[in-house]
Each structure stands twice: as structure tokens, then as C-alpha cells.
Amino acid sequence: xxxxxxxxxxxxxxxxxxxxxxxxxxxxxxxxxxxxxxxxxxxxxxxxxxxxxxxxxxxxxxxxxxxxxxxxxxxxxxxxxxxxxxxxxxxxxxxxxxxxxxxxxxxxxxxxxxxxxxxxxxxxxxxxxxxxxxxxxxxxxxxxxxxxxxxxxxxxxxxxxxxxxxxxxxxxxxxxxxxxxxxxxxxxxxxxxxxxxxxxxxxxxxxxxxxxxxxxxxxxxxxxxxxxxxxxxxxxxxxxxxxxxxxxxxxxxxxxxxxxxxxxxxxxxxxxxxxxxxxxxxxxxxxxxxxxxxxxxxxxxxxxxxxxxxxxxxxxxxxxxxxxxxxxxxxxxxxxxxxxxxxxxxxxxxxxxxxxxxxxxxxx
Amino acid sequence: xxxxxxxxxxxxxxxxxxxxxxxxxxxxxxxxxxxxxxxxxxxxxxxxxxxxxxxxxxxxxxxxxxxxxxxxxxxxxxxxxxxxxxxxxxxxxxxxxxxxxxxxxxxxxxxxxxxxxxxxxxxxxxxxxxxxxxxxxxxxxxxxxxxxxxxxxxxxxxxxxxxxxxxxxxxxxxxxxxxxxxxxxxxxxxxxxxxxxxxxxxxxxxxxxxxxxxxxxxxxxxxxxxxxxxxxxxxxxxxxxxxxxxxxxxxxxxxxxxxxxxxxxxxxxxxxxxxxxxxxxxxxxxxxxxxxxxxxxxxxxxxxxxxxxxxxxxxxxxxxxxxxxxxxxxxxxxxxxxxxxxxxxxxxxxxxxxxxxxxxxxxxxxxxxxxxxxxxxxxxxxxxxxxxxxxxxxxxxxxxxxxxxxxxxxxxxxxxxxxxxxxxxxxxxxxxxxxxxxxxxxxxxxxxxxxxxxxxxxxxxxxxxxxxxxxxxxxxxxxxxxxxxxxxxx
Amino acid sequence: xxxxxxxxxxxxxxxxxxxxxxxxxxxxxxxxxxxxxxxxxxxxxxxxxxxxxxxxxxxxxxxxxxxxxxxxxxxxxxxxxxxxxxxxxxxxxxxxxxx
Lengths: 364, 490, 99
Prior knowledge:
The structure holds 3 protein chains of 3 kinds. Chain A has helices at 8-18, 33-42, 56-68, 79-95, 121-127, 143-160, 170-174, 213-233, 254-268, 286-292, 309-317, 336-363; strands at residues 4-7, 23-26, 49-52, 73-77, 99-105, 136-138, 163-169, 176-179, 205-206, 237-240, 247-250, 273-278, 280-282, 298-303, 323-327. By secondary structure, chain A is an alpha/beta fold. Chain A has 2 domains: 4-233, Rossmann fold, CATH 3.40.50.970; 238-363, Rossmann fold, CATH 3.40.50.920. In chain A, the strands form 3 sheets. In chain A, strands 3-2-4-5-7-6-13 form a 7-stranded mixed β-sheet, sandwiched between helices. The N and C termini of chain A lie far apart (59 Å). Residues 354-364 of chain A have low confidence and may be disordered. Chain B is an alpha/beta fold. Chain B has 2 domains: 11-260, Thiamin diphosphate (ThDP)-binding fold, Pyr/PP domains (Rossmann fold, 3-Layer(aba) Sandwich); 303-489, 3-Layer(aba) Sandwich (Pyruvate-ferredoxin Oxidoreductase, domain 3), CATH 3.40.920.10. Chain B has 16 helices and 14 strands. Chain B has a 7-stranded mixed β-sheet, sandwiched between helices. In chain B, strands 10-11-9-12-13-14 form a 6-stranded mixed β-sheet, with helices on both faces. Chain C has helices at residues 23-27, 59-63, 90-97; strands at residues 9-13, 33-39, 45-49, 70-75, 87-89. Classes of the chains: A alpha/beta, B alpha/beta, C alpha+beta. Chains in contact: A-B, B-C. Chains A and B meet through helix 1, helix 3, helix 4, helix 7 and strand 8 of A and strand 2, strand 3, helix 2, helix 4 and helix 10 of B.
């Protein structure tokens, strides 16, 4: 496969169509608008539907309709727009409707600004709508992953009959990198549960309503079981020089890229640093953290928010290892020099002392 | 009765086939709807069901049920059923219909659902002329939640949230949905009917059938507003409530056809067949055979390419394009590349910059905070990034003279009036390419074929390709000339 | 009795479905529907056909809010060329209506 230079936002759309997506309903917002623009260009040419809705509220409910009809569908937005979609996401999770939602995050709260932040982690991973539900959340850190994880998102959405979110930041959306695509397009298929306006689907019903308390409990338990299954089977993370890492850096999206540069420099200066980059934010790759915890002295979370991912890292480690945290917000990106300096400080604080502790322990 | 009296009778008005025989809403009462005695929903359901029967579209029908008393409509209609969030039925119906063009999509909504929380969705679905049918049940009150006022509540009408009666001063006036939507261009059929007496009810049935038939014919958006009794919340006997529709409600909401363009309306065009699957990679521009093979083979020299470039200037100076040509050429030459536009707070207010990396190794971070080449297209950009340049790196500056206070001993500088050079070549806007030419000459690594290929891919106008090629060549010359001067001076 | 004395129409009321709203009583042009004295299983008085005088106009069916509480039948020999409808014996209908 040959590579071409492409923006992350455009790669999402091309990958989606190759994965069988035939509907896009959305509302413009910086920095996600290129996704709608590419969808407006390519979907009508490939037998699909593109419609710019009157609001994000309408857009997500259009996905509800398209997904009910058994069409692979997607939308994209950013912080404030995703907030408006939360109602529909909850309904889709409840009605077990697959769809893919790309969140190209920006600064918040409120209007915030259009610069890149990672402050949508909570509303993506923890869900902003009502009820006991999760969306599966994938976090690409390159244009190639924008393409690959979009295809995976459609697979997971169908497999688990649930909305899947691509949580990317403005950098990954706006930047261009070489990317390659599969050379075959997936054939759109109609799931059996869909309501298609044809005889075979006449008895089908899409709803999130379960009036009886026992009925609703059974339904919520069924959703819970799906999430448990996803936790067992779908966690993904990238480990980068973690084999002997005493300091494990943790970050996702563009921060993951910065941390790779930091890891290289830190290793060059003799520190045993590695990177654990969650790719699925829900289900969270807890197993990776638990596996690295015995050898690691400390985990360093770097995040473009005041602390959202770091909460899950702390939960995953459950106190067995210290967690240090570096954060930038407002559109400021931690430079790799800044992170490296922080890592040096962490190393001075943790590495000699802990090594000593271990030596002492060995002599007891 | 004696046996000779037994005559043969046949059913002329009976339960519609489009209703389920039993309603599985609960374990008990499976032969009854959940509606209160005398509720208009039952009558409207029957009208819709007989329209579906008569038009022979039971298999094709998708009913979108709302939030409100009719939320359970799916227990009654033996059709495809989708239950929507409060107010969102028109959005859901829009996508159902666009997804399955052969389906007959009916959105069934109450007045709280349609005229309050869903006012945006109905307005825009109507304005787009979605080929769907909307049944709008107006009983001037929120019934399911226990009798709060609705946008359609009459002036003076008491509700639990207008205990003294609706007042224009506080709640505004009753919303005339049919009239409002009839002011739009797209809708094909809009009628308000009532359930106030036998005659009105008969007309309501005809209107609903017509609204569904319009969709079967593909004519476009039809909405029937039905003034409907709610004996329970209105605290009236069923027959009394029925007459209240005719004698009171109708005064605020006159019955009639507000829009009928069924004669002029053209049927929706047939859906174009989608392209064959194997054509899709080509349509998307990702098919291997349509992508250039590149000129990696020309990168014979084992140069260690590791460019960290920051390009900065004002919007319109071609900052992003300079970076893009560089990245595209790098890819063509088989290198790992990344291009990241300035983005965020810097994006507006005129300044623009981008990060470009070219390397033989995979790019870790696409962010260039310590460039080894800075291309500064004006003085503010120079001042902003000058101090970040890696020792031993290069600053290419567009200006008559390099500002004294920016001078650093540990970086190389090529400062020239590139804009004037470009102007002499034919267009000042080509300054970016003159500077890129200098950069390429400094970096040395990329084959000319890759640069030519990148330029052709990114610059569509042949006149500009020609000018840019000359600009690039001139930039290379300028760098070489500066070297010679430096040698003479040295 | 003779054919001509037979009512043109016939009414069946499903007393389990009828909620006793009385709309049909009000709507019936020949006024041959009334409310029962007896309550049904759910505590409602239900619509009752007088047993004769139904013209099969269908108005009671139209105003009745329940999908299948009322069924209106018409004598076959009053419908020239009609066919294909469900056939029902008058005795069955009467029995149902008198419940």
C-alpha cells in the first residue's frame, strides 16, 4: 500500500467509508469541521448520505435514526458540541445502537477556545448522559491511527451494538502525516435487529424505554455484561521501552507523541524511562498498568487537562505506585523539554531513594 | 331466534390489520390500549392504522414514537418501530427515511414534544421538505407529566404550571404550528383537523390518510395537526372534552388546509445506484494505482536527514504551503514526515506558522519546539522563534537586514529580502518558494524530482507551478551566492 | 320473520376492550347504542347495542378510541358484489353484544 500525506480529519472520513460507513450527520465546529467537509464531498459519491443538521442535538438523533435503519453512520464534533450530543449518546447506548463519534477536542469549559486540550476525557470516557452506560473510547495519536482506529471503531460499534467515540485532539486532527488505507471497501450489511421498512424487519423495535423495574434492571445488566466483555477483550495500549522502565510515562493522543520524544532523550541521558500509551480509554488498559507496576518506581501522567486521565491511572494502580502529574491547559502543549525537565525532577526524587530501599530490603 | 333468520354479515369496520392482535405492554390487559377513556390518541391511532392498511404499506411503515402519552405506540402498531427522544422524532425520521428510501416513515408527536422541546427539529425537517409524514397531536397540555402548560395551551387555560391560567404576559401566546410551518417553502401538505364531533373526526381520518399517501407518492413533507381531547387532564367527561375541542379549542386553532402543493410537487428522484465497491478506493483517492510511486530510489546518499523546521509568518505569505511542499517532497523521497499547522490561539490574528519534520526514522513528536531550521517570513515571526533555534541550526529570514538584537553567534543566518526577489521573478507571493529553495539547498538531501512532484501535486495552476519552480531555483542560487560571499569575506 | 325486517347493520362490542367512554353512544345517528347496566371485569360500564336499528354507518367505530372494541358488520345482501370480508353469524354477534 502506498502512503499519501493527509490530515487526520480527512483520514477519518476515508477510513470510515472504506469501513462501510454510509451516513454522516453533523454540525460544524472548529477544529472538527474538516471531517464534515470531507464527508460532504465523499459520501454522496459513494452512495451515502451527508446532512448538516440544525444542531448537534439533531445530528446525534439523526444518527439514532440512521443506526436504527441499520446503516453504519458517524458524526464528529468538539467539546461543546459533544456536550449537546450527550442526550442522544445516552439514548443510543440504551437502545443499543452502534455509531462512531469523533471528538476533536478543544479548550473548555464553555466556549473555552479552539486550541487543543484533552479536557473532554471525562465526558467521553465517563459519559455525559444519564444512566449506567459507557461509550467505548479510542484515542489515536497519529494520522495512521486516525484511519486505523476509525475502522476499528465501526467494528467495535457493531460487535457491541454501542456508540464508539474517537477521542482525538485538535493536533492529531489538523496535522498531516503519511497514511495508507486498505485497498478494499467493506460491503455495508444490514443487521438483523434493524428497522428497515421491509417485511423481514417489521416486528423490530428500537427503544431505550423499559417501564418495569425488573425489565430495566435486566436491560442495564445486559449492557453491563457487554461492557465487562469489552473490558476483557478490547483493551489496547502501546508500550514503548517499558521492558526495564523505572519511570513509566503515561499519555494519550498528541501527548503520547511528545512522550515518545521525551523517552528517547531520557534514555539517551541514562534514565530508564518508558511510555505506556492507552489506546482504548474505555475500556481502560488497567492490565498494562498492573503488569508494569512491580518494576516501575513511579508513573508520570502528562495531560492537557487539569487531571482527568490521571484519575483512571490512579484507580488502575490502586495506590501500589506513586503517580506524578504534569498538566498544561488552555491550548498550551507541554513541550518535550518541559516534560523532560519534569521527568528529571521525578527521577531525582524517586530513583535513588527507592533503589536504596530495595538494597536495604535485600539485606534484611 | 329461529334458524331461518340467520343471515350472513361481514365486517365493514373492524380492527385494522396494522394493529397487533394483543399488546405486549404488560402481562395483563393485553387487549386494551393504555390510553384513558375518551382519549384522542386512540382515534388517531385507528385513522393511521387504517391508512396503512388501505395503502398496503404495513411492511414498509416505520413509526417513530415520541415521549409523551403516545410513547407506547409501538406496542400497538405492527410495523417497524423506533422510539425517539423527547422532541427529536423529526430528526430520527429524517435519517430513517434517507437511509431507507423505500420505507414510509411516520413521526407521531404530541404538543410538548413537537412544539416545545422539539421546535427546532420540526422546523428544520419541514424546511428541508423531508419526505415523511408527521402526525401532531395537539391537546393543549402536557398530559403524561400531569397537566403542565404547553406552547399550545389556550390563553386563560389553567394548568398545574399556570394555576391562574395562561397569560400572554408570562407565557406568550398559543403557538400556531400549522400556520408557522405553512410559511415555509418546502412542505407539501399541512392541515389542522379536530376530533370535536363526527364530522371533524371523519375529516381527520381523510387528512391522515392523505398525508401518508403523499409520502407513498414521494411528494414530500406532510403534517397533520390534530386537535385532540384529553378528558383526564382537562377534568371533563369524554363527550364533554370532545365538544370542548370543537367549541373552544377551535376558536384559537382554526381548522383547515394551510398548505397544499400536492399538485405541483414532484416525486423524489430515484436514488442513484451506489458505485461498485471496488471503485470506492479510487473515488476516495486512496487507490494504490492512483498514488505516485515516489522517488525514494533517488535518495542514494546516505545523508542523515533529520529536519525540524518551523515556518512562521503572516497569513497569506504561504507559510503553510511552504511546509506542505517540504513535507510532500520528503514523503516522495521515501522519508518519514509530519506537518502540523499552527493551530489554536495563534491561528487567528494574522500570524501563521507550521511545524515540519523530515527524518529517516519514524517521527516521534510532530511538534517542533526546538527547530534546526527556522524560516521567518517577517520580523515579528523572527522575534517570536529566534531564541528557540537549536545551536548549529539555521535561520532563514525575509528582510533587508537582520535585526542586530536578534543575532546569535551559535546559529547560521541567511537574511535576504526574499519578497523583493520574488517580486522581480513575477509575483511577491512566491517569496515562500524562494525561501524554500534556499532551505532545500541548505538541507541538501531531497532529490529535485521529489520537489517537482510535490509542487505539481499541491499547486494546481500551471502558471504558478512555473513561477514556483523558478522561485525555488532562485532560492538555491541565493544560498550558493551567499556562501561564495561568505568565502570571500572569510 | 322476513328479510326486510332485518337490520342493515350489526354491532359487536368487545366488553373486555371497551372503557365505557360513551363516545359511541353520543355519536350513533340512529341512537341504538347505550351504556350497559352491568360493569365489566375492569369496572367500566360498556357500550351495548340495542339489538336492532344499526345502519352499519361505521361512525361508532370511527369515534371509538379503542382499536378493536367495536366491530361493525353489514348484511351481505345489502352489499351488491361485495365479498372477501370476514363472515360472522348474527347469533355470535348478538351474543357478544349482549354481554
